[in-house]
Specification:
Keywords: Cell membrane, Lipoprotein, Membrane, Palmitate, Signal. This protein is of the alpha/beta class. It contains 17 helices and 16 strands.
């Protein structure tokens, strides 16, 4: 078996959504050569053998540390001679949109959230019903009775924290209110510990402070979909204003990493693991990565994010992670289907990555998640983005779930002015629906 790890850096923007919807949607584009050279000079490898699969992933760390190779070797036991090739994309959401537009998306890939469900059939193969027996979020990526993606894991967002860092700073209890959270940050900073690593420079983690927090802090999982009903969804007095004000406060008070511009995602894991930094606001999937970076499992905890000062009602999301599917243009669809089933149910990825299982008959085993549940959060199951919401976002050229516009709003000199700009784009897009 030859397992090849490749790392491709692409430059893309939400305008690619327009390319997908217009110039690259017909069958005449299906035969773009596999060795086509993009405009930026990055060369994509030529065609692969018939028993080979190219798998696109956001988990560059698992490609680099050999974990993906281990999954491939395990898969080969039941599929002798198969050649699995992995490609890790740095900014997956935006990068993969370009890959889809140029038909260089391999055989198996994660479904980008920017595509509406009615667009999925243009790029993905329908998956068999048998794959979805006893599975959470089975219809999340479906259209007209056909399912195009299966969740790779389930997670809830909250504060991942280093207990030793808390103890060193004199933080004796998990903060249950926003004021207590800020006070814990103050103590950590005074001790020389980075209170919260927001990973501004990595871009994608900024979605936690934007659309992800906005989606659950009100207790209404349809908050984003309801944005399509108004011309001015960004307001200082709603969940958008409250969520982004928290992120801006952390930065303004010096409660985050000092170097905000560098992509320090990999570095940040070691910082949390060592106790030089104390907290992440991320999903429970990140816990395993912090432990792998050197933390003792018993030193890492997890609690619901205290986004306001009401400790008696704390919402937290129950969300699918990325959905995986099969390229419509794959020449090895049967083998790709076997890989998808194996990856989700048999590879060990779910457990090793710290996710909750997508299978409805499996109980969570992660100790930190049991701590999370001990604080009695009200779990909200995420809802699927509506066609109207996604259409409006695409027309407005706003790349939800990429983190880019959250970066801009967090860094804006005047948040209300930043909201005004967003609302102008949104209003114009609604008028063109």
């Amino acid at each position: 078996m030859n397992v090849v790890a490749r790392y491709v850096k692409w430059t893309a923007s939400v305008v690619v959504a327009g390319m997908l919807a217009t110039g690259c949607s017909g069958p005449e584009n299906a035969n773009i050569p596999a060795n086509k050279e993009p405009a930026d000079g990055t060369v994509v490898e030529s065609a692969v053998p018939a028993d080979a699969l190219t798998v696109l992933t956001n988990r560059i760390d698992l490609v680099e540390n050999g974990t993906m190779d281990e999954y491939a070797r395990k898969f080969e036991q039941s599929h002798p001679g198969v050649d699995i090739r992995f490609e890790g994309l740095t900014n997956y959401e935006s990068d993969v949109m370009m890959r889809l537009a140029t038909r260089t998306a391999g055989d198996v890939l994660l479904l980008p959230n920017q595509l509406s469900t009615k667009e999925l059939s243009g790029y993905f193969e329908p998956l068999p019903a048998s794959m979805f027996e006893n599975v959470h979020f089975a219809d999340f990526k479906s259209f007209q009775g056909k399912r195009y993606g299966i969740a790779t894991g389930i997670s809830s967002d909250g504060i991942v924290y280093n207990k030793e860092a808390f103890a060193a700073a004199g933080v004796t209890e998990v903060p249950r209110t926003l004021d207590e959270f800020y006070e814990a940050c103050r103590k950590l900073k005074a001790k020389g510990i980075v209170p919260v690593y927001i990973n501004y420079g990595a871009q994608w983690p900024m979605t936690e402070w934007g659309e992800r927090l906005v989606s659950f802090m009100t207790g209404d999982p349809n908050t984003l979909n309801k944005m399509a009903e108004t011309d001015e969804p960004w307001r200082m007095d709603n969940s958008w204003g409250k969520a982004l004000t928290i992120a801006r406060t952390l930065i303004n008070q010096g409660y985050t990493e000092q170097d905000l511009m560098t992509n320090s995602w990999e570095t940040s894991k070691a910082e949390i693991a060592s106790g030089r930094a104390a907290m992440y606001f991320l999903g429970n999937w990140s816990i395993k990565q912090v432990i792998d970076a050197g933390a003792k499992p018993e030193d890492i905890g997890f609690f619901p994010f205290p986004y306001d000062n009401n400790p008696d009602r704390r919402y937290a999301p129950l969300s699918p992670d990325w959905f995986v599917g099969i390229s419509k243009f794959s020449e090895n669809k049967q083998l790709a289907e076997a890989w998808v089933t194996f990856f989700v149910r048999e590879s060990g990825y779910v457990e090793q990555s710290g996710f909750l299982s997508v299978e409805t008959n499996k109980e969570p085993t992660l100790p930190q998640y049991k701590e999370f549940l001990s604080y009695d959060p009200i779990l909200l199951e995420s809802t699927m983005p509506s066609e109207t919401f996604l259409s409006t976002a695409n027309k407005a050229k706003i790349a939800f779930w990429s983190g880019d516009f959250i970066q801009e709003l967090v860094a804006a000199k005047d948040l209300s002015e930043g909201f005004r700009t967003m609302n102008d784009l949104w209003k114009e897009a609604r008028a063109r629906r």
